[in-house]
Structures are given as C-alpha cells and as structure tokens.
C-alpha cells in the first residue's frame, strides 16, 4: 500500500460516513449508504489499506462533526426520545419502521 492510496481511501470513507450521518440527521433512510460503506471498509481491510481502529476513529470524528456529540453520547438520547414518545403517547415516532429506528440507533 502506498501513502496516496491510503489517503484517497480515507478521503472517500470520510465522505461516506458524512453521507450516512447527514441522512440520519435529516431522518432519511441511510441503509444504502451504510451497506456501501461496510463493503468499502471490508475491501480496504482485505487490501490492507486500513485497519479497524483507524476506521473507528474516523467514524467517531465525522459523527462528532455532524452531530456535535460522540456516538456513545448520542445513543442514550435516542433511547430517551423513544421513552418520551411512549410517555406522551406520541405514536408518530413509531410510524417510522422499527428497522430504520434500530439502524439509526446504531449510528
């Protein structure tokens, strides 16, 4: 692996993470973006262009830039939002398919 390939890979992965998180922030389905990024990361690992730790750090960095909080800090907020919706009887929150809500909670 050379430096230029590594940098190009990280630039593209950063954009993919940004696309995923921006779609999630806008309440849009990001499953297509997530699957593409997963395949891209897998290929990068197989070709030894990136490592799992480096990918995780980049994902955390982009998440912080988009949402203003870390992934760990944001997850409890989603759980609190769900509990608040139940408490208030706000069933519009649950109109979104559970699969989509679960995937958003992962990000």
What count of structural domains?
A: 1
Overall SS class = mainly alpha
Note the gap between the termini: 29 Å
Taken as a percent bin, the fraction of beta residues is under 5%
**What level of helicity do the residues show?**
over 70%
Name the poorly predicted regions. none
Say what oligomer this is. single chain
Tell me how many strands there are. 0
Mean pLDDT level:
84
Main beta-sheet annotation? none
Name the shape in a single word: elongated
**How would you spell out the order of helices and strands?**
HHHHH
Query: Gyration radius, to the nearest Å?
Result: 16 Å
SS field, number of helical segments: 5
Which keywords apply here?
single chain, 107 residues, mainly alpha, 0% strand
């Amino acid at each position: 692996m050379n430096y230029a390939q590594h940098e190009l890979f990280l630039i593209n992965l950063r954009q993919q993470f940004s696309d995923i998180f921006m779609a999630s922030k806008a309440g849009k389905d990001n499953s297509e973006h997530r699957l593409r990024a997963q395949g891209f990361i897998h290929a990068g690992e197989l070709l030894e262009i990136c490592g799992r730790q480096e990918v995780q750090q980049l994902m955390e960095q982009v998440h912080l830039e988009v949402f203003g909080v870390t992934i760990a800090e944001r997850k409890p907020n989603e759980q609190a939002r769900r509990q608040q919706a139940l408490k208030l009887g706000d069933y519009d929150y649950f109109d979104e398919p559970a699969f989509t809500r679960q995937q958003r909670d992962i990000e």
